[in-house]
Write a structure and sequence with these properties.
It is a single chain. A two-stranded antiparallel sheet has the order 1-2. Strands 3-4 form a two-stranded antiparallel sheet. The chain folds into 2 domains: 57 residues, no CATH class; 68 residues, Recoverin, domain 1 (Orthogonal Bundle). The two termini are 28 Å apart. The mean pLDDT is 80. By secondary structure, it is mainly alpha-helical. This is EF-hand domain-containing protein. One of its GO terms (molecular function) is calcium ion binding. InterPro entries: EF-hand-dom_pair, EF_Hand_1_Ca_BS, EF_hand_dom. Keywords: Calcium.
Length: 153
């Protein structure tokens, strides 16, 4: 599998698109999550190599990475990091979405709140499943912050 846009990285969206409506979809997502070491929903070659060669020391790993050179002028994907003020706003949004006030978001709460922003249920379900890192069927505030980083709901 390769990145759909040939940027050298595979995103959850690209992976799910490749496995659309197949029986391997859930297995592929599980494998993706196990390789995605920093849990940012983007697989890099470095993360992939760390999983394939878990016993390689740092020197060996550096040598292996030197075999593959990034494309000339390739830039790192910017990551949204909320400021203290933005975290307060996100906390307010989280509390408003938490209809039953139990301190976590259930999928139905996220679906209802996201519909206002034009998201359809299938999009929200995919975002929810990708965000629920511990797979307990709930999104904590920390998981919600990660969701905001990738979706800007």
């Amino acid at each position: 599998m390769t990145a759909a846009d040939n940027d050298g990285r595979v995103t959850v969206k690209e992976l799910m698109g490749a496995f659309k409506e197949t029986t391997l979809r859930e297995h592929a997502l599980s494998a993706f999550k196990s390789i995605d070491l920093n849990k940012n929903c983007v697989l890099t070659f470095s993360e992939y190599m760390r999983r394939i060669f878990p016993y390689a020391n740092d020197r060996e790993f550096k040598v292996m990475l030197s075999w593959v050179k990034p494309a000339q002028g390739e830039q790192q994907e910017p990551t949204f990091e909320p400021t203290a003020e933005q975290r307060k706003e996100i906390a307010t949004m989280f509390k408003r979405m938490d209809a039953n006030k139990d301190g976590v978001l259930e999928v139905n709460e996220l679906v209802a709140a996201s519909a206002v922003f034009g998201y359809d249920e299938s999009e929200v379900m995919e975002l929810f499943n990708n965000t629920d890192k511990n797979m307990n069927g709930l999104i904590s505030f920390d998981e919600f912050i990660q969701l905001m980083k990738v979706s800007y709901i």
